[in-house]
Amino acid sequence: MSGVYLYALLSAPPAGPAGIGICAEPLRTVVAGGLVALVGDVTAPPAPSAATLRAQDALLRRVAAGLDAILPARFGTLVADDTALADALERRRLELAGALDRVAGCEQMTLRVWGETRAVRAPAQTGGEGPGTRYLAARRDAHEHAARVAELAPLRPGLDGFVRGERVERHDRPPLLATVQHLVPRGAGARYVQVVDAAREALVPWRVSVTGPWLPYAFGEEAA
Fold this sequence. Notes:
Blueprint: E1 3-10, E2 27-32, E3 35-42, H1 50-64, E4 70-72, E5 78-79, H2 82-91, H3 93-103, E6 106-114, H4 131-148, H5 156-159, E7 165-173, E8 176-185, H6 189-203, E9 207-214
Antiparallel strand pairs: 1-3, 1-4, 1-5, 2-3, 6-8, 6-9, 7-8
């Protein structure tokens, strides 16, 4: 199916030629609602593979190097034409502009938490409430536990000073317990790794692994 392939939203148009896309198509921009979209006209969306994912990442890194902010779209995002894209951007103008503001000047670090068991949380305090209230309290407690990633408590003081955003995915399927995406200032990846390394002993019995820096993919799903 042919259409307009959305690569990313940009804080501004590229200073020079946008270049060639991963389907060998010329790249161009569509401006709507004050937003700048990097797109290409394709006869079919690219098939997901390690090679195409790497190619798209390399393309977006090249474009991002000259911009304050980039919000990658989900791989494979295709719309019918420029009008459909402009309509979609206009409908979500405030949301998408806010997302671009959040990732401005930032890159992403990925932290994975490993262990045989997850951190035990204290049971929700329900007092004498009925079963419905207890159920809702337990759900709220579980959600808050997932968002906190209690296993990382010893690491938090070191990260609080420069981490600007967080996305958490709980797995709780040992040995992988959670994946945490952190938004940090560009160029702060080495400092991030140092902070994590300094906390490894305090994190026992859990282990962590770090990858990055990446473009802010986990914070760019809003653009899809």
